[in-house]
Design a protein that fits this description.
This protein is mainly alpha-helical and 172 residues long. It has one domain: Orthogonal Bundle (Endonuclease III, domain 1), CATH 1.10.340. Helices cover 65% and strands 0% of the residues. Helix 4 (39-52) packs across helix 5 and helix 8 (100-120) crosses helix 9. The relative contact order is 0.17.
Length: 172
Amino acid sequence: MQDYKWLNEYCLNRFGSAAALEAHLPTPATPRQLKAISDDRYLSTLALRVFRAGLKHSLVDAKWPAFEQVFFGFDPEKVVLMGADHLERLMQDARIIRHLGKLKSVPRNAQLILDIAHEHGSFGNFIAEWPVTDIVGLWRYLFKHGNQMGGLSAPRFLRMVGKELSEYRLIC
């Protein structure tokens, strides 16, 4: 395993300068921007992260419009009502990725988003107000309370929505 000094030098060489490296890093969303994201978009992004795990992202992304359709635009109020019969029908739909465990995660994560929104006003408020100084605590929370949010899924989901990952940002 290489140390930080080696990694820093590697990245500087790859990008040519510290300024070019900084310019390559994503800009985190502001708390106001995070709060403005609707709960259906958070659920869609969370589901996208779950389905991308272990699969080629371009394959999942190409099928995502069908996911938006079969999951009612990821409206948490509608998705949470999806029963086992509906999920079994989705297992026959060739337009989507038919992985029962991942399909079951969508209504379960819809319930998580609804529960958090009930307590915090919206899921975006919850994400925005979580202190960046305890980002690992947010990863753990999503791992513990979310469904199919193990491994790197929680931090990658947070990066996808724009949550600042503090010193844990990937730099190259």
